[in-house]
Amino acid sequence: MTPPTTTPATSTPPAADPKRPVVLIVDDDRNTREGLQRALRGRYEVRLAENAARGWEQLADGGVDVLLSDLRMPGEDGLALLRRVRAHHPGTIAILLTAYGSVETAVEAMKEGAFDFLTKPVNLDHLEMLIARGLRSRDMESRNRELQAQLDRKYGMESLVGESPAMQQVFEIVRQAAPTGATVLIQGPSGTGKELVAQAIHRLSPRAQGPFVAVHCAALAATLLESELFGHERGAFTGAVARRKGRFEMADGGTLFLDEISEIDPAIQVKLLRVLEERRFERVGGGETVEVDIRLIAATNRDLRALVGQGKFREDLYFRLNVVDVVLPPLAERSGDIPLLCDAFLREFAGRNGKAVPGITPDALHLLGAYAWPGNVRELRNTIEKMVVLGRGDRLTARDVPANIREAAKGRLPPRGGLAAGTLADTEREKILAVLQRCGGNVTDAARELSISRRTLHRKLNEYQDAGRLPAETPRRRRGK
User: Fold this and answer.
1) Which end of the chain, C or N, has fewer beta carbons within 10 A?
2) What structural domains does the chain harbor?
3) In sequence order, what are the residues at sequence separation of 6 or more whose Cβ sits closer than 8 angstroms to the Cβ of residue 272?
4) 416 or 291: whose pLDDT is higher?
5) Which of 5-14, 150-159, 408-417 has the highest mean pLDDT?
6) Antiparallel, parallel or unpaired: β 280-282 and 324-327
7) How would you class 240 by CB atoms within 10 Å of its CB: exposed for 0-12, middle for 13-18, buried for 19 or more?
């Protein structure tokens, strides 16, 4: 190679043309730099640097799409520059050039993240093909990442439905906690969807490609639960005819979900605490230490804090579990979400059973909304499935609502009268207007009392106004003083 020239590259390059990719050529040979520049400047914005230090100055400013770097240069070589680029600008496509090509150097360059490796003299047609391929590959990866991000934002919690303030708070905690490795404790009555929340956290986490392993602790006796969690060796107990992996090992690299953790025997609580602290354990009947990389999510329908006070649950384990706390409200406290849930379940079971059931009548929704739902979302889901399977019309009506729910709901039905009698929509409108009037037009307070989001309340008020069904004196103050 010829000695470095004294003509420095510009360290503060002009702003890049957004329509043309930027190619930075780093080579201590002036003829190589300028020759490649002439070949590429018709399609690309080309910048030049005579050594790695000058090249890094331009790379540090950002905006470089492709790096063409000589491998052997005075001072920092091309491989060292490549490592810096991959660490700080992973979106930059790096192609290394050398007059001393070998399989070993090519392999090393590819391991460090180079897109490709060319020997000099450079075949210009091949180089242009590589650059174009690299840019297409990068753009495709970028689109795929954005699409995945959009899918995660839209569908990462597709199984969780709700617009009530309580559920919006749950969604926000899930979004914040999922990308971390923090242990999560989900609390709420049976049937509120604790496992669905755990699955959403897993899907939105960096462990999404790993396993999601669920254990329902209340369904297993203490001796069986220990073997289920930690596995056992052959001969550890009667019937242990072979070594068996436990759920901790099965969840390695992913998420372990322990449902109804309040039911775990005190002896197993001690072992669980150790695993959470050290991420290691021994199988039942064995002495070999097993290390795992798992994220733990626990759930309970009981008040763990109260159990700690009663001496029934270890306080140190409670604090270890309760890093991030998610509290799911009973369905009765978010009745405004019932129409949304009914719609979701109706579409699910109509499709699963091959039935054309496009909707549910207001009277049926009126009955479902008046029921207390002691079994929460699970009971509502089972009810809609039953109605879809046994329904005889093209829409679900009040006649399709199970008799026990109709009877229980009768005493809870809100009064209806005058022109509003007979339709759920009018009853809903009257209730919304009454609450809004009581809150002095404060939409935030009214939405909170109605257990719906502010956006939903604004939408409904706009619909009433467009239909001429919003009294002129209705207060519509958006915020409190």
Assistant:
1) C
2) 22-144 (3.40.50.2300), 165-329 (3.40.50.300), 342-413 (1.10.8.60), 414-481 (1.10.10.60)
3) 229, 264, 317
4) 291
5) 408-417
6) unpaired
7) middle
Q: How far is CA 448 from the centre of its chain?
A: 26
Which region, left, alpha or beta, applies to residue 235 given φ > 0 means left and ψ of -120 to 50 means alpha?
left
CA distance 159 to 341: 10
326-349 pLDDT, tens digit each: 999 999 888 888 988 998 898 888
What are the tokens at 279? 């991420």
- Asked whether 138 and 111 are in contact (CB, 8 A), the reply is no
pTM comes to 0.57
Tell me if 134 sits within 8 A of 48, measured CB to CB. no
| CB-based contacts of 107-114 (< 8 A; 24+ apart in sequence) | 108/79, 109/71, 109/79, 109/82, 112/79, 112/82, 112/83, 112/86, 113/82, 113/86, 114/82
